[in-house]
Amino acid sequence: MPVYTLKQSSELLQTKQTSAVELAQEYLAAIDAQNPALNGYITLDKDLTLAEARAADERIAQGKGGLLTGVPVAYKDIFCQTGWRTACSSKMLDNFTAPYTATVVQNLLDAGMVTLGRTNMDEFAMGSTNETSFYGATKNPWNLERVPGGSSGGSAAVVAARLAPAALGSDTGGSIRQPASHCGITGIKPTYGTVSRFGMVAYASSFDQAGPMAQTAEDCAILLNAMAGFDERDSTSLEREKEDYTRDLNSPLKGLKIGLPKEYFTASNSADVQTALENAKALLQAQGAELVEVSLPQTELSIPAYYVLASAEASTNLSRYDGVRYGHRAEKFGDLDEMYANTRAEGFGSEVKRRIMIGTYVLSHGYYDAYYLKAQKLRRLVANDFQTAFARCDLILAPTAPTAAPKLGELNHDPVQAYLSDIYTIAVNLAGLPALTLPAGFSSDGLPIGVQLIGNYFSEARILGAAHQMQLESGWHVKSPV
Q1: Contact in structure between 168 and 210 (CB atoms under 8 Å)
Q2: How many CA atoms lie within 13 A of 219 on its CB side?
Q3: How far, in Å, CA of 73 to CA of 214, rounded?
Q4: Strands 290-294 and 257-261
Q5: Looking at 10, 133, 151, 196, which residue is catalytic?
Q6: Percent of the chain that is helix, strand, coil (3-state, to 5)
Q7: Which residues neighbour 64 within 8 Å (Cβ) at sequence distance 6 or greater?
Q8: How many C-beta atoms surround the C-beta of residue 271 within 10 A?
Q9: In angstroms, rounded to a whole number, what is the distance separating the alpha carbons of residues 365 and 371?
Q10: CA distance 38 to 145
Q11: Which residue among 76, 139, 189, 281 is the active-site one?
Q12: pLDDT tens, 374-404?
């Protein structure tokens, strides 16, 4: 069973203690043994994986290998890659093989990374438990009766189960950070526009952002170095100088001001989550960080604002799936209108349909001003709250979720309760800020719990450095369910 971090995998390859083919075969064997119970991977192609591994070995032999050459990686089933099925865990795209490659995937291929497969997710990234997938729910590797979180639950689960040293996820309202918390790994959502969205199937275009998921903050920093960068094919991509996200990994925390938002430290958090927060506070203080109270008064408005705006964007983005150009098409229909209706009724699951209907409603004549425009104004107020807070602190410490991972099926009949579980992650996406989840403890019944570090725009290196320093003094991130 592979237990390597991304950095350890790189060192093994660079010192010739293993080859890219051998490393890929080791992971593929572990996937064969564990994935049937976990359901973390939904698409595998061993021939393609081993072909990439052989190419990586050739680069290494020629002295052209880099830090990531030959290191395996898994991709959430939302990133297109030529020759690989990209279904977004939906019946609508079950037969879709990508004819082009997402920029972020191409960046990692150019770095020499080896594709292990596509990971399970909530359908079209809509969900918080990974139970809306057309291919069935992913199980939490710490307890197979629990959810891994969502929507990047498959990516979180395979990293936690040591079936990949790292994986890519996407974060629209917490979809990297919440499953990272539930599965006991590290995951970062970068500043909006830092990582290209070209080739990442859209859910809500003004929120979606790709990010790395791995065992450690150091691994995430290494991966983000290869992922980030300007892409002229993405109109939301930011044109900035290339950064080194590992630059602050060895920076001490002495003097760093950590904000504690009073709206996030409430009685609604479980006792286990509160204990994890106290663990994180103690780690920070022991290393010289200063804790200060801040306020984010619009927190309770972030959920309604988010679900109005994200659903509106989903309604628009998913209108392209009509059975005409690609994807699922209904077999039985009388005319064109019936073909559209039957295709979408058959192709989408209930949660996707719910959000399309909400989005269509808030964009409709007579309701646009009352809901959509008002939600946009609330979005600005949420972003302003963070700027006021960052005038008093460098980073913000917050819970990632109010509880540890719920049981499978626990939230299926109460979508509103499922939406409320995103209370601590959504505001970051409304504001477009970077935020990272790292492990900070375990619940009384042995489930991992993570906490967030939230930073101002383009402070990824500082966030990663703080998380790395915390992980040097704690053992939460090295614990494994296998």
Answers
A1: yes
A2: 29
A3: 10
A4: parallel
A5: 151
A6: 40, 15, 45
A7: none
A8: 10
A9: 11
A10: 10
A11: 76
A12: 999 999 999 999 999 999 999 999 999 999 9
Tokens 């057309």 belong to residue: 134
> φ, ψ for residue 262 (rounded to 5)?
-65, -25
Say if CB 383 and CB 431 are below 8 A apart.
yes
Query: Binning pLDDT at 50, 70 and 90, where does residue 413 land?
Result: confident
The confidence score (pLDDT) of residue 28 equals: 98
Instruction: Say how far apart CA 91 and CA 136 lie, in whole Å.
Output: 11
Q: Is 311 a catalytic residue?
A: no
Judge whether 374 counts as a catalytic residue.
no
Query: Which residue has 């505001």 as its token pair?
Result: 427
Residue 247 DSSP SS3: coil
Cα–Cα nearest to 458, from 294, 239, 177: 239
* Count of other CB atoms within 10 angstroms of residue 449: 29
Backbone angles phi, psi at 394, to 5 degrees: -90, -45
Q: How far is the C-alpha of 340 from the C-alpha of 273, rounded, in Å? A: 46
Long-range pairs, 321-325, Cβ under 8 A, ≥24: 321/92, 321/93, 321/347, 321/348, 323/347
Catalytic, 175? Answer yes
- Residue 331: count of CB within 10 angstroms of its CB: 9
Could you give the strand order of the β-sheet that contains 72-76, starting from the edge strand earlier in sequence? 41-43, 114-119, 72-76, 166-170, 210-214, 186-189, 435-442, 448-455, 395-399, 257-261, 290-294
Q: Report the alpha-carbon distance of residue 394 to residue 48 in Å, rounded.
A: 44
The verdict on pTM exceeding 0.90 is yes
pLDDT at position 301 over 80: yes
**Nearest of 177, 123, 173 to residue 438 by alpha carbon:** 177
Distance CA 436, CA 177 (A): 6
The active-site residue, picked from 89, 170, 175, 443, is 175
Supply the pLDDT for residue 470. 98
pLDDT given for residue 346 in this prediction: 97
Rounded CA-CA distance 62/430 in Å is 46
Our CA dihedral for 239, 104, 320, 205, rounded to 10 degrees, sits at -50
